[in-house]
Design a protein that fits this description.
Blueprint lengths: L4 E6 L16 E2 L2 E2 H9 L5 E5 L14 E2 L9 H15 L5 E6 L9 H9 L5 E5 L2 E10 L3 H9 L6 H7 L3 E5 L13 H12 L10
Parallel strand pairs: 1-4, 1-6, 4-5, 7-9
Antiparallel strand pairs: 2-3, 6-8, 7-8
Helix pairs in contact: 2-4
């Protein structure tokens, strides 16, 4: 069963390999990556927020709450996860789960949240994978984990999302790669060109996979 869930798009990176700026605002198939993510994630979650730093006005047209990192000095995506868990605890206390996705993945599957919930069982986390590779940023997180996560970040100086996710023995859900990896990331100019080519060719990850 899918429970009420806050979805959070992690867009706090510096996009150095793309020459700076916001990867989420790059164009793929005639839309920004962020617009594609919003279209894909909105039907899957109860509320959707955006984790990004600096001036939130650059995202004003998307009408999402923009939440900056709780911790200083841009300590990475794991701090963004903490920000989402803290936001849910404060502004959506009736919601006990947060689904995080990266702000540079234009082909996310429409069955993402449903499949993670179905596979979770008694596991504390559920994480997506494809091609035999885990994608720890694409994880369903319990809000109750926020104090443990803050300790890991602040006291242990742990910043690798994968290391933290593995610590909690997540349920892993594998998606097949059919035409495109649904968790394809736009990290370089070459990736951006490839994503645009795939989008122009009608690549889609909408249909649920058996």
């Amino acid at each position: 069963m899918i429970e009420p869930t806050v979805g959070m798009i992690l867009a706090g990176g510096l996009a150095r390999r793309l020459g700076g700026g916001d990867k989420a605002l790059r164009m793929v198939g005639g839309q920004t990556v962020l617009a594609r993510l919003i279209e894909r994630m909105t039907p899957q979650v109860t509320r959707l927020i955006l984790n990004a730093n600096d001036d939130a006005a650059r995202f004003a047209e998307f009408n999402l709450p923009v939440v900056g990192d709780d911790l200083p000095d841009r300590p990475g995506p794991l701090a963004g996860v903490l920000t989402g868990l803290d936001w849910a605890a404060r502004f959506a206390p009736e919601v006990h789960w947060v689904m995080t996705v990266p702000g540079d993945a234009p082909f996310l599957p429409e069955d993402l949240v449903a499949r993670l919930y179905a596979a979770r069982g008694g596991a504390p986390l559920a994480c997506a994978a494809s091609g035999g590779q885990m994608h720890p940023v694409v994880t369903l997180w319990p809000v109750a984990l926020r104090h443990d996560l803050r300790r890991a970040l602040v006291e242990e100086d742990l910043h690798k999302v994968g290391a933290y996710v593995r610590r909690h023995n997540p349920a892993i859900v594998e998606w097949p790669i059919e035409g495109v990896d649904p968790f394809f990331n736009v990290n370089t100019q070459g990736d951006l060109a490839e994503a645009d080519r795939l989008a122009a060719g009608g690549v889609d990850c909408k249909l649920p996979h058996a």
